[in-house]
Specification:
The chain is mostly helical. The chain has 5 helices and 2 strands, in the order H-H-H-E-E-H-H. The structure holds heme C (HEC).
């Protein structure tokens, strides 16, 4: 019974972004941003990444790491490039590119330099 309770608690923490850690994934990205990432990116950019994606985008450590194809920039900067890249957008086709509020939310966050991750 005790084991069951502990397992349930870590499951809950694992599912909720932005409120503490579960010891494995520091879920420390600002919550509006985390929602956009979860809805639009996490199916491929989870940990481990899926479908040929090169890196996870799940927490501040992931975001501040060097971009896998360009170590001169961070994953955060690469996100800013690709969500606005009309020829090669993220999420990739056949998904619709981001627009409206989700795009603005990520752009503001990239521009601010993911302040919660400093
Ligand atoms: C359907 C799977 C899929 C989804 C959804 C997806 N990606 Fe990707 N992503 C990929 C793949 C595959 C690559 C590697 C090929 C490429 O760069 O196009 C990639 C590459 C990237 C890169 C470039 C990394 C580098 O170093 O070149 C960034 C940044 C990125 N994705 C961000 C995002 C963001 C932000 C979202 C959500 C808004 C997202 N992706 C959604 C599959 C996905």
């Amino acid at each position: 019974m005790k084991t069951f309770k502990v397992a349930g608690l870590s499951l809950l923490l694992g599912l909720s972004w932005g409120c503490g850690t579960n010891g494995e994934e520091p879920a420390n990205i600002e919550s509006d941003v985390a929602v956009v990432l979860t809805e639009n990116c996490e199916s491929c950019h989870g940990d481990p990444p899926q479908a040929g994606a090169l890196m996870p985008i799940e927490n501040c450590d992931d975001v501040l790491a060097a971009a896998p194809t360009n170590s001169d920039i961070t994953v955060l900067e690469a996100i800013g490039d690709r969500i606005n890249d009309e020829d090669n957008p993220m999420p990739p086709a056949p998904d619709d590119p981001l627009d409206g509020q989700p795009l603005n939310t990520l752009n503001d966050w990239v521009e601010a330099g993911a302040p919660e991750c400093e």
